Amino acid sequence: MLQMKQTLCRVMAVAILSLCAHSQSAHYSMLCSLTRESKNPAVSLAGIHLEIGVHARKASGIKISLSEGPRRIMILRDMSASMTGGNEQKLLLQAVKDFVELSPAIDQFALIDFSDKPHTQIDLQNADQFSKQLDDLESSKPPLPRGHTAIFDTIYAAASYLQKNPQEDDSILVITDGDDNASTVDLTKLKEYLLRSKIRLYLFVLSSPPVSPVQENKRPELMQLMVDTGGRLTGVASKTMLIEPNFDASPTTIALLRERVAALQYLIQKAYRIEFHLDAPLAKQTRLDTKLVTTDNKPAKGLQLLCPKYIYPN
User: Could you tell me if 134 and 126 are in contact, meaning their C-beta atoms sit under 8 angstroms apart?
Assistant: First the structure.
């Protein structure tokens, strides 16, 4: 009888310790995009597993599953004075139209035009309604580029719009020449807001050279913000890359624009949900490292996982 009581006590102790350990662990999830660093479009996780590194924590129970939407995408269109050349407006409009046309009909889109301030032109709508409202906007009174460029302020405004009814699969797509010269938002707070909200930032850049030291410094900050959220950059360059850029709107460039818009749309749509447990909850912003490895524990060649670079306490 004594031996049975001792055995029962040991079993209960193990169960209690296990329950306590589980209660102290924390569950985290995020969306990531998988890309292949070659022109081969086939992307597969067959024979690949994911390693997650978090400072002073041990990750376990890692799960990967495909998450295909529906999505909500805020499209931010640069309408500042730097976009007043010959073909910029044509390329801006074409990029917006291509992105929506290539997306599933159940996705939702909103359009914010910005210069020194954001202006919501179209609230969140499905693809069909958005396209109709965009056509009406362009045919009735198309907006004219003017003023300075407040990209960071507009990103914050778009994130705030989405957070009225937050969803994990929200994204922001900025179509711009990449130069900010008017924002007042604190970049550290903006980064924290995006990462806490799990909003991914994507950039489509009509590339031209910076025209001032301030703009020169803002470009790396914008790129780093995109990388930190797990986003991606693409775009088309000006024909001459002079201070006064000459943007080419030839059929070849329009085709290239559509191809690169399609690449961004694919990354937003074909996301992977990563779920895992940490052995103890986080108390502050913490760096997150992810690595894809093969069954023999070697780096997976040619595959890149675009994930947020930081995670925050739940």
Answer: no
Question: What are the tens digits of pLDDT across the range 121-161?
Answer: 999 999 999 999 999 998 887 777 888 999 999 999 999 99
Give dist(CA 29, CA 206) in Å, integer: 33
Distance between CA atoms of residues 130 and 110, nearest Å: 7
Classify 270 as helix, strand or coil.
Answer: coil
Between strands 286-294 and 310-311, the pairing is antiparallel
Q: Please, what sign has the CA dihedral across residues 184, 267, 124, 132? A: positive
pTM of the model: 0.86
Nearest to 176 by CA among 103, 234, 244: 234
**CA-to-CA distance for 221 and 151, rounded, in angstroms?**
11
Return the closest-CA partner of residue 290 out of 81, 49, 120.
49
Per domain, the residue ranges of the chain are 26-68+283-311, 72-269
Q: How many CB atoms lie within 10 A of CB 138?
A: 14
Are the CB atoms for 50 and 292 separated by under 8 Å? yes
281-300 pLDDT, tens per residue? 999 999 999 999 998 889 88
Instruction: Return the pLDDT at 5.
Output: 46
**Rounded Cα–Cα distance for residues 162 and 154 (Å):** 12
What amino acid occupies position 110?
A: A
What are the tens digits of pLDDT across the range 80-114?
Answer: 988 876 688 889 999 999 999 999 999 999 999 99
CATH topology of domain 72-269: Rossmann fold (3.40.50)
3-state secondary structure of 44: coil
